[in-house]
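Before relying on records like the one below, remember that each one covers exactly one chain. Contacts with other chains, cofactors or solvent are not represented anywhere in the record.
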Amino acid sequence: MIRINLSSLAAPRTKRGKRPATPTVSIPGEGPSTVFLVLVFAALMAVGMAVSYYFYTGQHDRLAKDLQDALRENQRLAEVKEKYEASKKKADMFERRVKVIDQLKEAQKGPTRLFDLVAETVNRTDAVWLETMTTDGKNLNFTGMALSADAVADLMVNLRKSGAFKSVEIKETSQDASIKEVQAFKFELICEIGISDKLQKQS
């Protein structure tokens, strides 16, 4: 005989204290959309790029200004250095002039007064100095340097006015190319001694 348990076919009962889970239904339109997020991200990127652009542009302008200031300062210092070197060269030449005159005075063999007159005449003439001075008893030969041709002419005039020479003639003059900083001329003068016997005998 077959028996059937009808209770097993009935709907399952829920346990007390627990409710069946309610399925979640999402409603379209709630929460941030993808398009909005993309726009926000693009805006932030644009702001960041703008800030970076202005920052680097300002930095570039400051560096360019600093470079120009440095170039101007370098040019100024170069001009100052050039003027200083020219002045120093000129001072060295005048110092050499004084030393040569002193040496000539110390090594002189002729009448003291004649050489003193020559030294005084050279000292009164600007931009000129002597390198050598020799005499054969009749003529006095000068070789020297000058900063211009006019300075040589002034020296010749002053030598004639000294009354120590019958004639003062220029033998040679040329520009010295070895001196770059300033213009300089080499010259050689021949002076015929015409000083009085009284002055020649002084020592």
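The beta strands are 128-135, 139-146, 165-175, 185-193.
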